[in-house]
Amino acid sequence: MSFARSFRCGHCGVDVSLDAPGTSHRNHCPHCLWSRHLDRNVPGDRRAGCSGAMEPIAVTVRGERRWVLIHRCTGCGRLRLNRTAGDDNVLLLMQLAAMPLAMPPVPYAMAVPVVGEVTHS
Ligand SMILES: [Zn+2]
Ligand SMILES: [Zn+2]
């Protein structure tokens, strides 16, 4: 598959069209959500001079139903926020969002009081 304006994902190797629904500037792969460290300040300036692979590490929400991906550069460690696109892999986004819930810092049994074990004295 090839597009008029596209790039090849450096992580999973699929060809990705630069035209993405819901965002004016595609900056990450909709299949694996990895990105590339190309922009320094504003999306599209292509002045980072790093070009390291950027790993999607978390999802946050900005405004109403606007999901934002947090990428960390595996080359220089910088964090970047990237708007999600309409055709991003929803399952992967959900997994990222649920990750802290699946791995709480304390066991649920300790954090949640057990119902039905109230002692009457
Ligand atoms: Zn990819
Ligand atoms: Zn970098």
Feature tags:
four-stranded antiparallel beta sheet; 121 residues; binds zinc ion; 2 helices; alpha+beta
Give me the count of strands: 6
The number of helical elements comes to 2
Termini separation:
72 Å
Helical content stands at 10-25%
Element order: H for helix, E for strand = EEEEEEHH
The count of domains is 1
Uncertain spans, ≥5 residues at pLDDT below 50? none
Bound molecules: zinc ion
Characterize the structure shown:
By secondary structure, the protein is of the alpha+beta class. It has one domain (6-99). 14% of the residues lie in helices and 24% in strands. The protein contains 2 helices and 6 strands, in the order ββββββαα. It has helices spanning 90-102, 108-111, and strands at residues 6-8, 15-17, 35-36, 53-61, 67-73, 79-83. The protein has a 4-stranded antiparallel β-sheet, with helices on one face. Strands 1-2 form a two-stranded antiparallel ribbon. A hairpin with a 6-residue loop joins strand 1 (6-8) and strand 2. The chain is elongated. The N and C termini lie far apart (72 Å). The model has no long low-confidence stretch (mean pLDDT 86). The structure holds zinc ion (2 copies). It comes from Virgisporangium ochraceum.
Architecture blueprint of SSEs:
Layout: E1 6-8, E2 15-17, E3 35-36, E4 53-61, E5 67-73, E6 79-83, H1 90-102, H2 108-111
Antiparallel strand pairs: 1-2, 3-4, 4-5, 5-6
This protein binds zinc ion (2 copies).
Residues 9, 11-12, 14, 29, 31-32, 34 line the site of one zinc ion.
